[in-house]
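Hi Y.,

Following your request, here is the sequence exactly as I used it, all 342 residues.
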Amino acid sequence: MKLQQLRYLLEIEKQQLNISNAAIALCTSQSGISKQIKCLEEELQLSLFVRNGRKLTAITPAGKRVLVLAKDVLNKIKDIEQTAEEFSTKQKSIAIATTHTQARYVLPYIVEQFLSLHADINLSIHQGTPVQVADLLEQGKVDIAIATEVLASREALVALPCYQWSRSVITKKDHPLAKKTDLTLADIVDYPIVTYVQGFTGRYKQDEVFKKQQMQPNIVLAAVDADVIKTYVRLGLGIGIIADMAINSELDKDLVVLSVAHLFGHSCSQVAIKSKGYIKPYIYPFIELFAPHLTQNIIMQAIGCHDLKARRQLFSELEIPRYSKVAKQHLSGGESTRSNNP
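Below is the corresponding structure, written out as tokens. Let me know if you'd prefer a different format.
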């Protein structure tokens, strides 16, 4: 049995049983993959796939079991490689995959503090959609993923709650809503809205609230970047709905900021690591700096939970801070201030 055969097996599953696509992804020939899979089946004396002529139509029950074990084997190989790299190179590194909002508004303070404490570690940040961020971590291309969506839904990842955040409506100072003190959904739907695209920064929660009240918001522009949203609000295109952490009291003093936490509630940003695999020792202090309640002991307990229900029980006993208090902590360099879950 060869490791390359296991890699071929996993890629075929990833490409939905299309050997041609698997060959392209692995930069090899279709015939070469077919031959190696046939050799593996002969060695194991098992049929790993159901076939219709030359076409693979399904994975057999035995094949599914072998796939699980193959993933474990290749993950262990990657662990060995990462451990060897850790001890053989002078340059330590952490690769982080995250969304624009986290990279732009939250991480700068953490990165600055972390590098002041660990100058020998090289940090790299990869930006993407929540799905791309989760994929990068699952594929072992990064060490940590940070996002609000998707991470908790991936079985191969352990998603840890970092902080809760809410939303605000932003308007120009001469807008009719600027003088309102307690906005309602009816107030908001009366005006064109500029907000995040689907799948980013808790957009789904906004949509659910409007849908539940049978209201149809007039979203005239959707963007990934809160700075883009602010730009079009300043141009008078509409009112904006953005995450609180994207608001800068100095840079945005020309805008009126109106909290709508009472309308849309709170969302929770998460940091994720792989549920199985090697964790670099300095990942723990980075996560704890980002979210002080996530100590190494808590992280190891979360990894050890046998299912999502047990993990939720563990997290239910934690007090997850609100972003406003987290931001003050990072800016002051002081200790964490926590609040109860909403």
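Residues 6 and 70 are 6 Å apart (CA to CA).

Thanks again,
Q.
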